[in-house]
Automatic annotation (TrEMBL):
Its cofactor is Zn(2+). InterPro entries: ADH-like_C, ADH-like_N, ADH_Zn_CS, CAD-like, D-isomer_DH_CS1, ER, GroES-like_sf, NAD(P)-bd_dom_sf. Residues 12-344 form the Enoyl reductase (ER) domain. GO terms for molecular function: alcohol dehydrogenase (NAD+) activity; alcohol dehydrogenase (NADP+) activity; zinc ion binding. SMART domains: PKS_ER. It comes from Asticcacaulis excentricus. This is Alcohol dehydrogenase. Its EC number is 1.1.1.1. Belongs to the zinc-containing alcohol dehydrogenase family. CDD domains: CAD1. The lineage of its organism: Bacteria, Pseudomonadati, Pseudomonadota, Alphaproteobacteria, Caulobacterales. It is an enzyme of class 1 (oxidoreductase). Keywords: Metal-binding, Oxidoreductase, Plasmid, Zinc. It holds the Pfam family ADH_N.
């Protein structure tokens, strides 16, 4: 039977989030019913709730960094049982038969992946609602096992911030002989530092702000470069095999290109939109360099990332909040006033 759920929703692009009661679908044979324990707060939650990217559907229940405990499984479910600790990330379905899906890149599904919120269920066309809620119902294929060794609140952001930075590091085969730089020290950036260090790379942080040295070193950076200092930027000319650019807002990418090694690549994981000023292609051509993008990761790779985190004791640095404080958290995020990810303790829904 359908499941009644309490959550928090945005009713419009300009309204604050507030309590919202809705109904989850009647579980299907391949579904897992999850009691949500924690949900991370992603910068994209703000963009979606405020319709910054267009296409917002209201009421909207955000949240796609979900950690919970299985309460029920469908008759066809084989990988999970009641009591398991699990995660759900940015997707809850895809067509599962196109070339990207077959290759494990469900995020690039030719028919469009079904997002955890602000989407439509592929089977019954009902809107999807996210993790700012007490329960969620998800197909087994899109549920992830969470290592029992991980602290659960810190594990929640791994489902988006974690896989978003892990995936390009794996794709570009980062290892002990790699030189990696990270642009920006926020929710994504701090995870990129942790992962790059765990892969054995030499790690550099690019930042506009002085005073981040101690935190950056703690998170895995071997060196900090102030991107506004011409001498410091010149000192790292043609050094980096890979740059992970995590900045979520419009910024000039061109100053980082000279720091790429021959055949090096800068990967954008934070900003979506036109580059202003335009990208100068001359150094890319002259030194075989590239600028690329990367979107989260497929389900298999996300599970690999969680297992890697379990092995290396990697979680996100978080500030746990009550759901009642979500609007204040949004305002603080816009001011970069968090180290480094807010996570909602969903038990607060009943407070």
């Amino acid at each position: 039977m359908p499941i009644d759920v309490l959550g928090y929703a945005a009713k419009s692009a300009t309204s604050e989030l507030g309590p919202f009661t809705f109904t989850r679908r009647d579980p299907r044979p391949d579904d897992v019913v999850i009691d949500i324990l924690y949900c991370g707060v992603c910068h994209s939650d703000i963009h979606n709730a405020r319709n910054d990217w267009g296409g917002a559907m209201y009421p909207m229940v955000p949240g796609h960094e979900i950690i919970g405990r299985v309460s029920h499984v469908g008759s066809n479910v084989t990988r999970f049982q009641s009591g398991d600790t699990v995660g759900v990330g940015c997707m809850v379905d895809s067509c599962q038969h196109c070339k990207p899906c077959i290759k494990g890149f469900e995020q690039y599904c030719d028919e469009g992946s079904t997002y955890t919120y602000n989407g439509f269920d592929r089977h019954d066309q009902r809107p999807t609602f996210g993790g700012y809620s007490s329960k969620i119902v998800v197909s087994e294929k899109f549920v992830l096992s969470v290592p029992t060794s991980l602290e659960l609140s810190g594990a929640a952001p791994l489902l988006c911030a974690g896989i978003t930075t892990y995936s390009p590091l794996r794709h570009y085969k980062v290892g002990p002989h790699s030189r990696v730089a990270v642009v920006g020290l926020g929710g994504l950036g701090h995870m990129a530092l942790k992962f790059a260090k765990a892969f054995g790379a030499e790690v550099t942080l690019f930042t506009r702000s002085a005073g981040k040295e101690a935190d950056a070193h703690r998170l895995g950076a071997d060196r900090i470069i102030l991107s506004g200092d011409a001498d410091q930027m010149a000192s790292v000319t043609r050094q980096f095999d890979l740059i992970i650019d995590t900045v979520p807002t419009l910024h000039d990418v061109n100053p980082y290109i000279p720091t790429l090694a021959i055949n090096g690549t800068l990967v954008l994981v934070g900003y979506l939109g036109p580059l202003v000023p335009p990208l100068n292609s001359a150094p890319l051509v002259m030194f075989g360099q590239g600028v690329a993008g990367s979107l989260i990761g497929g389900i298999t790779e996300t599970q690999e990332m969680l297992d890697f985190c379990g092995k290396h004791a990697i979680t996100s640095d978080v500030e746990v909040i009550r759901i009642q404080d979500i609007n204040a958290a949004y305002e603080r995020m816009l001011k970069s006033d968090v180290k480094y990810r807010f996570v909602i303790e969903m038990a607060s829904l009943n407070a």
